[in-house]
Amino acid sequence: MKRISKRIFATVLSLVISCVFTESTASALSKIGSQGQEVTNIQTRLKSWGYYSGSIDGIYGWRTANSVKEFQRKNGLTADGVAGPATLAKIGLPTGSSSSTYSSDVTLLAMVINGEARGESYEGQVAVGAVVLNRVRHSSFPNTIAGVIYQQGAFTAVSDGQINKAVESSCYNAARDALNGWDPTGGAIYYYNPSTATNSWIRSRAVITTIGKHVFCK
């Protein structure tokens, strides 16, 4: 009888340990001590945006954690140095679910649309999202949505923090429409507000169309 009880206890203990391990693995985050492809991806993106200056070795050390903290501080996140779902989403990396990549793309695109075209017509909001996607496809720009959005000096909303404002629902819809292929700009890769733009180079670009306050160009 005692032998049977011991077997039952051992079986239950094994199941508990297994469940705990599975749960902790499923909710694992990239943090100090983590290694692997996700860490490499984090380092690669943060380095391309100027947050990380170390070697891309796939090892989550203090330098990587400090770079993540700086990114978090500048993008409205809790600066704990841990690359959890919210941080990964803003970096533009999968957060665990099968639809996370698309969800991250929608969120990032909606954020930049909100920062750059809040108050514009719906078509004008979709147009800003389309410009981001046109850049992703263009050889002169990074080939990811996150890369384009966080490219140094690319968007005023990133530089001045407007990207971190509460996102209006129309901007999420505009992001989805842009991702689904609507491009009101006719292939533009630049845009500017003629009433505020002071850069002579952007004003020299070939104009495609004007939507609201923005001039869209090649």
How would you describe the overall organization of this protein?
The chain is mainly alpha-helical. It has ten helices and three strands; from the N terminus they run αααααααααβαββ. The protein has helices spanning 2-26, 37-48, 62-74, 85-91, 100-117, 122-137, 145-149, 156-159, 169-179, 200-203; strands at 190-192, 207-211, 214-217. Strands 1-3-2 form a three-stranded antiparallel sheet, covered by helices on one side. The chain is elongated and about 50 Å long. The relative contact order is 0.10. Mean pLDDT is 84; it is low at 8-28.
What attributes does this structure have?
single chain; mainly alpha; 10 helices; elongated; 218 residues; three-stranded antiparallel beta sheet
The share of residues in helices is 40-55%
The portion of residues forming beta strands comes to 5-15%
Strand order of the largest sheet: 1-3-2
Number of helices: 10
Radius of gyration: 22 Å
How would the global form be characterised?
A: elongated
Mean pLDDT: 84
Q: Sheet bearing the most strands, described?
A: 3 strands, antiparallel
The number of strands is 3
- The arrangement of helices and strands along the chain is HHHHHHHHHEHEE
Q: Briefly note the structural class of the backbone.
A: mainly alpha
Low-confidence stretches are 8-28
Distance between the termini: 82 Å
